[in-house]
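for the recovery benchmark. tokens below, seq after
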């Protein structure tokens, strides 16, 4: 009973955090964690400054942000930036102004966007909708459909489909090479190769500034 109660309270806390969090998708990471931290600080600071919204500027000192997950897996895609607000009204205002001012263009990519944080169930729906949008775009031969706020939206000005990124290509080559190497090794050596990988390091301590560095769980 106690474990169930604690689990319920934890889930409730995570849902409340998500309800006050915005997510930036499509902002590239740098070569090192330290460079990424500095770039993220500049990105978030510039977004608040360039949007020119008095209310957002007045609350920026109470905002925290972090990449999710905290530790990046080797070969993984660029992690989203999660921005934590103190209430969902401020979060919604930030998203609305960011979209109106096209603040995500700071990423240098026309495919970057901002959305609210989603629950696990909503993420499942989001993935399903993105697969549907992907099929429609493949049929159209251009980027004509996108997913926004759990809806498939048709763009008024379609864009060319984004080319396969070099990072994705590198991952595919690395996976193929690893599979080939593993299959050619005796079972014992194959196991040793897997076990020899260093364990993930603990999350880095992150310095504070006008914007805090959060460590959100989800």
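predicted aa per position
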């Amino acid at each position: 009973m106690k474990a169930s109660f604690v689990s319920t309270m934890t889930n409730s806390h995570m849902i409340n955090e998500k309800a006050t969090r915005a997510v930036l998708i499509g902002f590239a990471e740098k070569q090192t964690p330290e460079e990424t931290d500095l770039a993220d600080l500049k990105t978030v600071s510039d977004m608040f400054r360039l949007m020119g919204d008095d209310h957002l500027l007045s609350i920026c000192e109470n905002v925290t942000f972090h990449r999710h997950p905290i530790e990046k897996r080797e070969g993984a895609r660029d992690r989203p930036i999660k921005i934590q607000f103190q209430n969902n009204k401020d979060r919604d205002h930030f998203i609305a102004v960011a979209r109106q001012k096209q603040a995500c263009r700071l990423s240098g990519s026309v495919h970057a966007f901002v959305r609210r944080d989603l629950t696990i169930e909503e993420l499942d729906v989001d993935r399903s909708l993105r697969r549907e949008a992907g099929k429609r775009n493949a049929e159209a031969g251009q980027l004509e459909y996108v997913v926004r706020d759990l809806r498939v939206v048709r763009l008024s000005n379609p864009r060319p489909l984004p080319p396969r990124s070099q990072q994705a290509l590198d991952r595919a080559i690395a996976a193929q090479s690893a599979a080939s190497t593993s299959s050619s090794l005796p079972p014992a050596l194959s196991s040793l190769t897997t076990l020899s990988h260093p364990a993930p390091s603990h999350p880095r301590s992150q310095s504070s500034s006008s914007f805090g560095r959060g460590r959100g769980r989800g």
